[in-house]
């Protein structure tokens, strides 16, 4: 077959294929596999090789945009992770600072209590009468012990609040065995009145308020 005829047939075949591609773009329901074998047979009979269909290549600007977007997304993910990590570290440091401040306050309170206890008179002996904590003796927690006599020892704060309401006396005076000679950790805060009747007691300071 003359080369001119062969070329004309190939050009006509390619033109028809391009026309079919246009129909396909218009959503005509057929597939390339419907006509690709026919086109391949024409090329084969003419002694030519049908070049495989070329895939559309991505343009350089599009590729650059995709790469830039990928880098941007990755950078955002890294920044978000770092933000969460930094926030967690800040929260942890804030909690540690708060704990240190609490510990410091507790130590300050303990030091103040120790200083009050150190400066207060450690032992006070009281006889019959009424006495006010913070005026007649330092307010604080006391161990109370009967020195002589037998009688009532009463504070005007409730025994539920650590006060006292008891009969106290020495063993020599307590012939009926109804009295206690010693009480420990009696709380006598500032302004509390301690009333003694018939008994002398010794107050030993445990902790000043």
What can you see in these coordinates?
The chain is an alpha+beta fold and 209 residues long. The chain folds into three domains: 3-45; 60-88; 123-208. It is built from three helices and six strands; from the N terminus they run αααββββββ. Strands 1, 2, 3, 4, 5 and 6 form a six-stranded antiparallel beta sheet that branches. Helix 1 runs antiparallel to helix 2 (32-45). The mean pLDDT is 84. Residues 90-117 form a coiled coil. Keywords: Coiled coil, Membrane, Transmembrane, Transmembrane helix. The chain crosses the membrane at residues 63-84.
Q: Roughly what is the average pLDDT, rounded to an integer?
A: 84
- Backbone shape: rod-shaped
Question: Distance between the terminal alpha carbons, to the nearest Å?
Answer: 123 Å
- The number of distinct β-strands equals 6
Main β sheet profile: 6 strands, antiparallel
Order of helices and strands: HHHEEEEEE
The helicity comes to: 40-55%
Question: What percentage of the residues does DSSP assign to strands (E)?
Answer: 15-25%
Helix and strand content put the structural class at alpha+beta
Which regions have little confidence, pLDDT < 50, spanning 5+ residues?
none
| Structural domain tally | 3
């Amino acid at each position: 077959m003359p080369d001119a005829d062969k070329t004309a047939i190939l050009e006509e075949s390619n033109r028809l294929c391009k026309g079919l591609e246009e129909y396909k773009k218009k959503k005509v329901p057929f597939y390339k596999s419907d006509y690709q074998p026919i086109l391949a047979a024409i090329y084969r009979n003419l002694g030519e090789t049908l070049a495989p269909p070329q895939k559309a290549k991505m343009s350089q600007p599009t590729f650059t945009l995709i790469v830039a977007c990928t880098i941007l997304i990755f950078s955002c993910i890294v920044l978000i992770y770092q933000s969460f990590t930094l926030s967690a570290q800040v929260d942890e440091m804030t909690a540690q600072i708060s704990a240190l401040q609490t510990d410091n306050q507790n130590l300050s309170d303990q030091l103040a209590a120790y200083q009050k206890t150190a400066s207060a008179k450690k032992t006070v002996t009281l006889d019959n009468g009424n006495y006010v904590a913070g005026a007649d003796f330092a307010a604080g927690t006391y161990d109370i012990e009967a020195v002589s006599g037998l009688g009532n020892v009463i504070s005007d704060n409730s025994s539920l609040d650590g006060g006292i309401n008891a009969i106290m006396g020495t063993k020599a005076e307590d012939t009926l065995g109804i009295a206690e000679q010693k009480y420990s950790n009696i709380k006598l805060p500032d302004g509390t009145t301690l009333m003694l009747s018939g008994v002398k007691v010794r107050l030993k300071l445990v902790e000043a308020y």
